[in-house]
């Protein structure tokens, strides 16, 4: 066990956990922030995507002791009122079916658009192919990203 | 208006006891409710008046509608309340939706599966809304002293034109709650619908995109412990012994023990699973800690011997023998070939197939196979349980809460009335979450550790404790006469351990000489419902085969099918044909028109297929191209006939999802077994379709009619496999007989 000071969504949090604990479980179990989802645990599905200093990373393989003072953003902190352009585009296109993968999809898309506000189809493919949607909402994800990139 | 008898016995009008005096406020969980109009905040009323089990109206006119069915992405939480709101004649903007708990006394058929939700509840939902509207009108008529018949409604307002009186529903909610339930109500004509048939956004949309804790895995309760289980590494094995000495010393671990999922004399129901009934529970403070401790656990497993048990089923219970052994895919293939070579069990025979095949000018024969598939619902298996001396509370993702209650009641010896089953939104189901062994496991663990427990399976164990789609095998034969008319058809279908045969489906009824045979191969691998059970294999196989037959007959594949439907319509063979040939032809004609079939193929190669299952009709045209030496799906055009489309945009989303899922399963889906263990257990080994492999465009069209709505989650799934295979054939010149198709390419 060790103490870690984490900066998450603009707030300081302290946790006392094993240093090898993935950030995913620190968020979900210790800090009770359930928006970041567990899908595979091995960086293959993207459900657990968060931002570390603005970059999309898989929290299931990001160990808590590797975070340091990097700024963590989760789906809960992407916007104050759920009005980030990506979230709005997701609602406009009514993307979700079961919805389980969508926080991860949204975090992935938001990181892409931050770095590249007008991505080409190929660039979107490249960025989004690590995020699985078992319900098959890929065509809507694409439309929503296009809408968000134009807003 | 049409008049309808109230369609819900008494049960949905049983009110919360406290309400008898009228005008009492209900306990209402605002966090669990959601507002359809996400932009405009609804004002929560000071008082709720319960009109019936599904409906509460606030003094300010806000309406709360219960969604009775479990939601796993099929959109029932939006579409079913829409139907009630329609007949209630309320403004959708003033509606909030709540997920109903499991309560057999108040709600009917709280089950999600078989694409049945809307079909089975359509009339009941309509009369529920209409009855409430009627009660409001009667209340207003009394107060205004005018005849009920003169009171009209619109968008949540009551109006009497003669006197110029007008009031919102909220004003009469209290009085309406006192009005006796009418025995007959007026229903709207479909042409007058203002909510049904107009796209409404997912009522959970905002909560989903902001990461609210909607799912079972998100459940969090005071004092809750986390548990996981060690399950046998392979089918055919059971627990021998375990040593937890080391694992118990791991940080955060509270207890480790073995337990049985059923009592010895228990008779299983159709959703109980017979594999892996003795497990080791690891209980601790957090998910990561219990998963790590599991790695340190020393468990010995041993092969079991053949055993018999009484299995529940849709057609009553039966004695089943479960064979011992550690099965492998290679053995399954050998056994299926052997079984297919022997005479099968004749399920249907029309005319004289033997004779017809002898006389045929041409006989076409092909065999199709498909492997086991895993459900891979995105949210891994989990359930919360809190078992105390006199009460059981379980919360989690379940397609079949009624069975959760029954199995737990039998296992713990606690009566059903003391078991509270609450349903969460599900991160996918696809059939898997009808089998809720994990709810019982969670309850047993909670009882043992005397604390609330959330049971969490790893992704790997979620797969390994599979209730798989069976492996299937079918041989078709078709006989053509000298004029290329199909005069004989033979289907012989089997699988491990179940046959996918649907003997009364097309082309039965369209061929004079028809023979359908079934066979099975025993297995100890657990199988169960998977999106469009049975149909998800036999449908595509039949449609791939008909493409071959059409080609051999020198006919256009759509015209070839339409000719057969014409025959089935005008001169059907046999009486038990379970499809409507005109509606079947209808979706093919619609997809032909919308895809511009035969006109603009410009470099793309196209395939078509149609299928009927779960009461709806679906047809797809798929366009494929070669991209960097690999086939890629460009475009899909779909046509559906599922009767009235309640929520069109959500319906389109469902069809798009089925198309993507079907393409993924057809191209990549495969679970193989080695010595009883699945060779794939996570997304690194199981190929799930990804963003870059989905079609670039999917166009969905619906046949417009006023038939009561039927299922949508399953029907578009089977035919997409075949439309894809038929398109690939045009692209590569190879027929695709064995799934997954990408293996055939390599
Ligand atoms: S849970 Fe992290 S990528 Fe799947
Ligand atoms: S919406 Fe269900 S997994 Fe993506």
Summarize the structure.
The complex is a heterodimer of chains A (151) and B (746). By secondary structure, chain A is of the alpha+beta class.
Largest interface summary = A-B, 58 and 66 residues
Q: In percent, how helical is the residue content of chain A?
A: 25-40%
> How would you describe the shape of chain A?
globular
> Given the helix and strand composition of chain B, which structural class is it?
alpha+beta
Intertermini distance of chain A: 45 Å
| Helix content percent band of chain B | 25-40%
CATH level-four homologous superfamily name of the largest domain in chain B? Aldehyde oxidase/xanthine dehydrogenase, molybdopterin binding domain
CATH class of the largest domain in chain A: Alpha Beta
Distance between the termini of chain B: 61 Å
Rg from alpha-carbon coordinates of chain B: 28 Å
Report the count of strand segments of chain B. Answer: 31
Stated plainly, the CATH topology of the largest domain in chain A is called: Ubiquitin-like (UB roll)
**Total domain count of chain A:** 2
Annotated CATH architecture of the largest domain in chain A: Roll
CATH top level of the largest domain in chain B is Alpha Beta
Structural class, from secondary structure content of chain A? alpha+beta
Shape, principal axes of CA atoms of chain B: globular
Q: What proportion of the residues of chain B form beta strands (DSSP E)?
A: 25-35%
Low-confidence stretches of chain B: 7-40
Number of helices of chain A: 5
Low-confidence stretches of chain A: none
GO molecular function, one term (chain A): 2 iron, 2 sulfur cluster binding
Protein name (chain A): (2Fe-2S)-binding protein
Pfam family, one (chain A): Fer2_2
Keywords (chain A): 2Fe-2S, Iron, Iron-sulfur, Metal-binding, Oxidoreductase
């Amino acid at each position: 066990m060790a103490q870690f000071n984490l900066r998450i969504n603009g707030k300081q949090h302290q946790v006392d956990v094993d240093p090898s604990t993935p950030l995913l479980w620190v968020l979900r179990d210790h800090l009770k922030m359930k928006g970041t989802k567990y899908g595979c645990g091995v960086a293959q599905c993207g459900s657990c995507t968060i931002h570390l200093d603005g970059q999309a990373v898989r929290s299931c393989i990001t160990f808590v002791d590797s975070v340091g003072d990097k700024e963590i953003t989760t789906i809960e902190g992407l916007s104050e009122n759920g009005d980030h352009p990506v979230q709005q585009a997701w609602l406009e296109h009514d993307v979700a079916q079961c919805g389980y993968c969508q926080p991860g999809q949204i975090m992935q898309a938001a990181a892409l658009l931050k770095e590249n506000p007008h991505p080409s189809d190929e660039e979107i493919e490249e960025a989004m192919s690590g995020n699985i949607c078992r319900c098959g909402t890929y065509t809507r994800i694409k439309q929503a990203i296009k809408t968000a990139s134009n807003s | 208006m049409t008049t309808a008898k109230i369609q819900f016995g008494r049960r949905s009008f049983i009110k919360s006891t406290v309400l008898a005096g009228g005008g009492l406020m209900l306990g209402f969980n605002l966090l669990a409710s959601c507002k359809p109009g996400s932009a405009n905040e609804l004002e929560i009323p000071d008082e709720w008046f319960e009109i019936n089990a599904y409906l509460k109206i606030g003094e300010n006119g806000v309406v709360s509608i219960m969604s009775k069915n479990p939601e796993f992405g099929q959109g029932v939480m939006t579409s079913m309340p829409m139907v009630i709101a329609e007949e209630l004649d309320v403004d959708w903007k003033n509606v909030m939706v709540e997920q109903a708990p499991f309560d057999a006394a108040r709600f009917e058929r709280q089950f999600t599966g078989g694409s049945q939700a809307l079909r089975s509840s359509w009339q009941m939902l309509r009369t529920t809304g209409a009855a409430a509207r009627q009660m409001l009108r009667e209340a207003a008529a009394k107060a205004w002293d005018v005849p009920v018949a003169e009171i009209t409604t619109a968008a949540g307002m009551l109006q009497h034109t003669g006197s110029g009186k007008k009031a919102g529903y909220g004003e009469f909610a209290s009085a309406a709650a006192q009005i006796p339930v009418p025995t007959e109500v007026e229903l709207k004509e479909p042409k007058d619908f203002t909510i049904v048939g107009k796209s409404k956004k997912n009522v959970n949309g905002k909560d989903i995109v902001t990461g609210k804790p909607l799912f079972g895995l998100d459940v969090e309760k005071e004092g809750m412990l986390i548990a996981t289980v060690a399950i046998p590494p392979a089918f055919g094995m059971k627990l021998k012994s375990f040593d937890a000495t080391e694992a118990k010393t791991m940080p955060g671990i509270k207890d480790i023990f073995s337990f049985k999922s059923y009592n010895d004399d228990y008779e299983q129901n159709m959703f109980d699973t017979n594999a892996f009934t003795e497990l080791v529970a690891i209980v601790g403070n957090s998910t990561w800690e219990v998963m790590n401790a599991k790695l340190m656990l020393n468990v010995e497993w041993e092969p079991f011997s053949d055993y018999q048990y009484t299995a529940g089923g849709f057609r009553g219970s039966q004695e089943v023998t479960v064979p011992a052994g550690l099965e492998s895919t290679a053995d399954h293939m050998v056994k299926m070939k052997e079984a297919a070579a022997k005479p099968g069990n004749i399920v249907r025979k029309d005319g004289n197939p033997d004779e017809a095949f002898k006389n045929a000018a041409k006989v076409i024969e092909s065999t199709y196979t498909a492997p086991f598939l895993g459900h891979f619902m995105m949210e891994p298996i989990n359930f919360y349980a809190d078992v105390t001396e006199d009460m059981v509370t379980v919360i989690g993702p379940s397609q079949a809460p009624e069975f959760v209650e029954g199995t737990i009641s039998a296992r713990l010896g606690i009566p059903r009335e003391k078991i509270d089953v609450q349903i969460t939104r599900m991160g996918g189901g696809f059939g898997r979450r009808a089998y809720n062994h994990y709810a019982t496991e969670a309850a047993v663990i909670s009882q043992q550790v005397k604390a609330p427990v959330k049971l969490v399976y790893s992704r790997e164990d979620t797969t390994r404790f599979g209730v798989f789609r069976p492996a299937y095998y079918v041989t078709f034969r078709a006989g053509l006469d000298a004029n290329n008319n199909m005069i004989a058809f033979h289907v012989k279908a089997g699988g491990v351990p179940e046959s996918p045969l649907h003997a009364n489906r097309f082309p039965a009824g369209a061929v004079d000489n028809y023979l359908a045979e079934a066979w099975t191969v025993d297995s100890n691998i657990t199988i169960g419902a998977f999106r469009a059970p049975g149909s998800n294999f036999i449908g595509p196989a039949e449609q791939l085969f008909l493409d071959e037959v059409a080609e051999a007959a020198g006919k256009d594949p759509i015209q070839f099918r339409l000719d057969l439907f014409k025959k089935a319509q005008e001169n059907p063979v046999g009486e038990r044909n379970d499809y409507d040939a005109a509606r079947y032809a209808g979706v093919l004609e619609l997809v032909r028109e919308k895809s511009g079939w035969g006109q603009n193929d410009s470099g793309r190669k196209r395939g078509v297929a149609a299928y009927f299952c779960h009461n709806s009709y679906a047809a797809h045209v798929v366009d494929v191209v070669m991209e960097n030496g690999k086939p890629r799906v460009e475009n899909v055009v779909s046509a559906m006939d599922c009767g009235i489309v309640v929520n069109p945009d959500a319906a389109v989303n469902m069809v798009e999802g089925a198309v993507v899922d079907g393409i993924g399963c057809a191209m990549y889906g495969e679970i193989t077994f080695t010595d009883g263990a699945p060779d794939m257990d996570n997304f690194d080994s199981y190929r799930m379709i990804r963003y870059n492999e989905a079609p670039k465009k999917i166009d969905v069209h619906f046949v417009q009619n006023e038939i009561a709505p039927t299922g949508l989650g399953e029907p578009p799934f089977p035919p997409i496999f075949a439309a894809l295979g038929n398109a690939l054939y045009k692209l590569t010149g190879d027929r695709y007989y064995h799934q997954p198709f990408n293996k055939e390419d390599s």
